[in-house]
Amino acid sequence: MKKNTSFIFKAAAACLIFLLFAETAGAARIKDLANIRGVRNNQLMGFGLVIGLAGTGDSATNVFFSIQTIVNLLRKMGVTVPEREVDQLKFKNIATVIVTANLPPFARQGDRIDINVSSLGDSKSLQGGTLLMTPLKGPDGNTYSVAQGPLSIGGFSVSGQARGVQKNHLTVGRIAGGALVERELPHSFNTKEEIFLALKKTDFTTAGRIADAINEKLESNSASIMDGRTIKVTVPKKYRESTSVFVSRIEGLEVEPDSVARVILDERTGTVVMGESVQVSAVAVAHGGLFIQIREEPEVSQPAPLSRKGETAIVPRTRIHVEEGEDKLLIVPKSVSLGEVVNGLNAIGVTPRDLISILQAMKAAGALHAELEII
Fold first, then answer.
1. Is residue 216 part of a domain?
2. What is the pLDDT of residue 18?
């Protein structure tokens, strides 16, 4: 069993090294590295009712606002509900929910957007329910969209007297295209004289490469760096009335992004992820494996046959086996590539979990020139 486990760990380490250091194309499009300032989603939220549930809705005793919401809805529709009867109302097929959505940039009236519906009360399931017309508002209090339609849960729940079966989460649903945009966000994008590219990750080198690529494409000095995350681009005069066309020309430009040398360690799963820019100084590494096995083998002691006294007893027995590996000392030369370092460590038989300990020790010794992040 021990040999099989060692073989599995070594095979996993070899696969990890192969995946991490395989040659990949380093160039990426500007649209994948940066966003255009002002072109973003806007979050919407609303309070609504889901009806048509099969007895799995909110309980009147625990969710008082569910009854209040239903009474207000009925009164708006012309149904008279006496005050003295409100406390006697009980509905098991209605649930109060919170509806959330993202309003995409440049959305127009009549466009449909997806919505998520989440139970607010103590409803057991939203399966089979229909969301009633729910206004979705932005942080400014204005209604930008209206949602309505049947929910898709993606699961089910069936049960009998003794046991039941449930698949997926039943108190959260989704409606694809379940909301209509009713209010547009004002914008004047096509008349902008300058745009700002915001990098998704701060890096001065990457920002400089993006500015150089844009200037080379336009054969001008239109792009300039404002900081490590922002590039200012002046729109050429011929694109002043069609900024969208100008953006479509530059967002497809390929740039090789730069990154900080970083090593990510996940001790829970034994995962090690390292970038190609990680460098090491000359260092000697030796990692001895210690194998300890503890086995409990209790024995049963019984009295002799036909004896008048004595009782059966369980006598504990513990066996401990300790074995220490004889790994060799590995000398890592200065300024070698990370792939050569890991290949050398793999040659002395380290596993991914061993590699985590070795990298932490190399960082403590000052030989690993990279940020060490443990997650």
1. yes
2. 40
Taking the mean position of all CA atoms in its chain, how far away is CA 162? 37
Q: Is 205 within the bounds of a domain?
A: yes
Q: Which residue has the tokens 């969208």?
A: 244
Q: Which residues of the chain have pLDDT under 70?
A: 1-26, 84-88, 159-162, 285-297, 306-310, 318, 320-349
Q: What are the tokens at 267?
A: 């001790």
Question: CA 69, CA 21: separation in Å to the nearest integer?
Answer: 59
CA distances from 138 to 35, 132, 145 (A): 22, 19, 9
> Per-residue b/e over 140-178, b at no fewer than 16 CB within 10 Å?
eeeebbbbbbebebeeeeeeeeeeeeeeeebbbbebeeb
Q: How far apart are CA 212 and CA 204, in angstroms?
A: 12
- DSSP characters for 261-305? -EEEEETTTTEEEE-TT-EE-SEEE----EEEEEEE--EEE-PPT
281: its two tokens: 């100084």
Structure-derived torsion over alpha carbons of residues 99, 103, 107, 113, reported in degrees to the nearest 10: -40
Q: What is the per-residue pLDDT across 309-323, written as a single tens digit (0 to 9) for each?
A: 667 777 777 676 655
Strands 94-103 and 42-51 come out as: antiparallel
Q: Which domain holds residue 87?
A: 42-156+168-181
Do the domain assignments include residue 162? Answer: no
Distances (CA, A) of 268 to 192, 205, 375: 50, 34, 9
The answer to whether residue 33 sits within a structural domain is no
State the number of CA atoms in the 13 A half-sphere of 352 facing the CB. Answer: 23
